[in-house]
Amino acid sequence: MKQTVRLSKNVIPIEYDLKIRPDLKNFTFEGVETITLSILKKTKTLTLHSKELEIETAHMSDMWGKISYDEKSETATFTFPENIPAGKNKLTIVFKGILNDKMRGFYRSRYYIDGKEHHMATTQFEATDARRAFPCFDEPAQKAVFHVSLVVPKGKTAISNTLPKSVEEHESGFEVIRFHPTPKMSTYLLAFIVGDFEYIEKKTKTGVQVRVYTTHGKKHQAGFALDCAVKTLEFYEKYFDIKYPLNTLDMIAIPDFQSGAMENWGAVTYRESALLVDENHSSVSNKQWVALVIAHELAHQWFGNLVTMEWWTHLWLNEGFATYIEYLAVDKLFPKWDIWTQFSTNDLGRALHLDALLNTHPIEIPVHHPDEIGEIFDEVSYAKGASVIRMLASYLGEKDFRAGLHHYLKKHSYKNTETLHLWQAFEKVSGKPVAKMMRNWTSKPGYPVVKAEIKNGKLALSQERFFASPISKKKSKDKTIWQVPLHNSSNVQYQSSQKSNFLPVRIFRSLKNPEIGSPSLAKPLKKFILENSYLKVNFGETGFFRTAYSKELLEKLKMPVERKILSPRDRLGVIRDLFALSEAGTIPTTDALEFLSAYKNPARNAYGKAVAGGEDNYTVWLEIALGLARLEQLIVPRQARHLRPTKSNLDKLILDLFSPTMKRLGWSPRKNEMHTDTLLRSLCISRLGRSGHTGIINKARAMFKTGKINPDIRGAVYSVVASSGGMKEYKIFIEKYKKETLHEEKNRIGGVLGDFSDPKILKLTCEFAMSKHVRTQDTVGILSSIGANPEGRDIWLKCIKLNWKILVSRYGDGGHTLARLIKAISGSAEEKHLKSFKEFFATHDAPGAKRAIQQVLERLEGNTLWLKRDGKKIEGFLE
């Protein structure tokens, strides 16, 4: 059992009076705070969280405390000569610290204007880094009110969670800015930022002042974010039926930022690419990302800030919810974006992928030390959390779901909760046994695969836990049975080929275990005549599970996929599950490859007349591209040409699949074209170009020479140029990267530097990623592109080993960046990578990435087995 790192429940903070003075020349800060405490029983010692701070004095009334530190538990203890009586007391602490460059705690961020270097001071406290800025009770349940004052040079902008209350003269050249008290909140939501900014502003209908802050010269890129924020805030106030609790909401673009954004109450911080949109140089896909990130952070103002999880074990209550609700808001603001279909791949698909491992974790996982806390900010807490919420929402129906949320937020405002409190709220309004149904979805790892077959005219269903690798399945003795809310399309008779007759009926069935201990879930629906019917289980892809159809049922799904009778979500669900079942060894990979023809060909009726064109939905094609990319990753690079299958044969299949869609879309956007067609064009260009389509490669190279490339296809063109290019192109990219000021464009270039095939260039890319020209927040993205390139894996491994010490010092102190970094090699099916990776991490510590290492090893073993099992069959099919 891990020792607990929780502070004593005997001492409760009520409010903090905090005065901080950052020094942007020497990168230090000093502070003084008075904490009003409620002490429940008399004590001589007080223990608070404190990390990398030098505490000069601590006193209560007229007693001075002796100061001692415990580095391991990140605390400071003050021992007083006499007992402090129970009741209300004030503790005053004088301290100082460094403005670090680790993007955690109170840190400095560097940027350039016209070649001149500037710095700002900013904060990032989630999960456990408020203790790096001031001694505090750094746990989500220790909510308090904060009175912040910042001592800053005159002319600097100071931002905190609330609006300034007063500005007073300080010693010459300085002023003290005092802010209004915050609501009662957790330490991790406090923020203070000092620097040179400009901003634009707007008010919501209910009078909340919304501002977007940028460094000088960038406020023209803030308009889209400001519009989104105002509309999103108005939508949430209506949807939750609870007013936003503050009168101000600031959103600040920070040049150095570890994650995408942080929901500090009233002062949300973002990395520049997640907030700024340049009308001439931003792509619609980045615009979409900005809208989703803003909607996510603003959802937290209620879910997380107003009502906060009791401890990090329940992190998913914050993150799963914000991830679900962000789609709700964006769908409301931009109904033509087809955003819920994209959820099926971007969130549901990603969650199913990670959670298919033995080395996953339950949504609710007991965590203790900051290292473990940082590790759970992953696809399980975010994407699986969001997916099971969506499953529950579709089971309860919109009305009860919304009423349950309102009840939960109202009842627990300014308090802390656990998962059970949410289930109780839904049970109260719906009368359904939510806690019982949801128990295994949140407390157990993994999810089921539901097997569907027809027996004597009846639908027979059974379930077992799904594993991506048969090795994991063998190791596991997991017999969990989940309660699966099952929506399925009923059998539809075909009277004519007109679409209007194909109205799938929703049948709500709960796929429960009829008898305890028996995993068989046979539930007769009605007499099912297979000849003229089809059946889609997990209708609308609302359930968090995979479906394995019998041969007959799968065959019958081809027609509704070809004719697009099924929705895009259902069409992508079928192929996604087929690729996953291939990886798991449940079906041969050739079954998935054979089914692809249903997406390519125009559907024809009995007389050979085309009744529907081929697949036209962006997200369905994205899902197909991801499935094929998994196969592409398995295929060993060129130096081992004798191994099967070969890349050239897979490329032929890709060209065959994607060419008709590219032909339909063309290179230039049409007037008023669908948002998703713009995204699809970019996908087709990169997919075809990287598979050797000479027409696409030549056109991309010609465009690159002129430098005039529409931002929507720029990333795709860069990728094609890099994957087919050499040293000349590499040098142009590097020069562009160094000069570029728009972070989004830097990311576009950085993301393709790993796509070259020349090992010499990939080695240079490694060196460049670690150099001073690349912000530490962006290094991992560039390195990962090398690890994901089959030609680059050996170089990636060498680079990681060589720079491991530096990487750990940069990213190893909490957070999930190291975990993201080491997952880049997960696609390999080469034994040597498995061996090398295993040996290295047997002797090298990876703080906050222990689970990630196990996940990579499990993937590498599974891939090797997959290739051995199916390599020859795949080659036979492709030839």
Automatic annotation (TrEMBL):
<dbReference type="InterPro" id="IPR027268">
    <property type="entry name" value="Peptidase_M4/M1_CTD_sf"/>
</dbReference>
<feature type="domain" description="ERAP1-like C-terminal">
    <location>
        <begin position="535"/>
        <end position="861"/>
    </location>
</feature>
<feature type="domain" description="Peptidase M1 membrane alanine aminopeptidase">
    <location>
        <begin position="224"/>
        <end position="441"/>
    </location>
</feature>
<dbReference type="InterPro" id="IPR014782">
    <property type="entry name" value="Peptidase_M1_dom"/>
</dbReference>
<protein>
    <recommendedName>
        <fullName>Aminopeptidase</fullName>
        <ecNumber>3.4.11.-</ecNumber>
    </recommendedName>
</protein>
<keyword id="KW-0479">Metal-binding</keyword>
<keyword id="KW-0862">Zinc</keyword>
<dbReference type="GO" id="GO:0070006">
    <property type="term" value="F:metalloaminopeptidase activity"/>
</dbReference>
<dbReference type="GO" id="GO:0006508">
    <property type="term" value="P:proteolysis"/>
</dbReference>
<dbReference type="InterPro" id="IPR042097">
    <property type="entry name" value="Aminopeptidase_N-like_N_sf"/>
</dbReference>
<dbReference type="GO" id="GO:0043171">
    <property type="term" value="P:peptide catabolic process"/>
</dbReference>
<keyword id="KW-0645">Protease</keyword>
<dbReference type="InterPro" id="IPR001930">
    <property type="entry name" value="Peptidase_M1"/>
</dbReference>
<dbReference type="GO" id="GO:0005737">
    <property type="term" value="C:cytoplasm"/>
</dbReference>
<feature type="binding site">
    <location>
        <position position="296"/>
    </location>
    <ligand>
        <name>Zn(2+)</name>
    </ligand>
</feature>
<dbReference type="InterPro" id="IPR034016">
    <property type="entry name" value="M1_APN-typ"/>
</dbReference>
<dbReference type="Pfam" id="PF17900">
    <property type="entry name" value="Peptidase_M1_N"/>
</dbReference>
<dbReference type="GO" id="GO:0008270">
    <property type="term" value="F:zinc ion binding"/>
</dbReference>
<dbReference type="GO" id="GO:0042277">
    <property type="term" value="F:peptide binding"/>
</dbReference>
<feature type="binding site">
    <location>
        <position position="300"/>
    </location>
    <ligand>
        <name>Zn(2+)</name>
    </ligand>
</feature>
<feature type="active site" description="Proton acceptor">
    <location>
        <position position="297"/>
    </location>
</feature>
<keyword id="KW-0482">Metalloprotease</keyword>
<dbReference type="InterPro" id="IPR024571">
    <property type="entry name" value="ERAP1-like_C_dom"/>
</dbReference>
<dbReference type="InterPro" id="IPR050344">
    <property type="entry name" value="Peptidase_M1_aminopeptidases"/>
</dbReference>
<feature type="binding site">
    <location>
        <position position="319"/>
    </location>
    <ligand>
        <name>Zn(2+)</name>
    </ligand>
</feature>
<dbReference type="GO" id="GO:0016285">
    <property type="term" value="F:alanyl aminopeptidase activity"/>
</dbReference>
<comment type="similarity">
    <text>Belongs to the peptidase M1 family.</text>
</comment>
<dbReference type="GO" id="GO:0005615">
    <property type="term" value="C:extracellular space"/>
</dbReference>
<keyword id="KW-0378">Hydrolase</keyword>
<dbReference type="InterPro" id="IPR045357">
    <property type="entry name" value="Aminopeptidase_N-like_N"/>
</dbReference>
<keyword id="KW-0031">Aminopeptidase</keyword>
<feature type="site" description="Transition state stabilizer">
    <location>
        <position position="382"/>
    </location>
</feature>
<dbReference type="Pfam" id="PF01433">
    <property type="entry name" value="Peptidase_M1"/>
</dbReference>
<dbReference type="GO" id="GO:0016020">
    <property type="term" value="C:membrane"/>
</dbReference>
<dbReference type="Pfam" id="PF11838">
    <property type="entry name" value="ERAP1_C"/>
</dbReference>
<feature type="domain" description="Aminopeptidase N-like N-terminal">
    <location>
        <begin position="13"/>
        <end position="189"/>
    </location>
</feature>
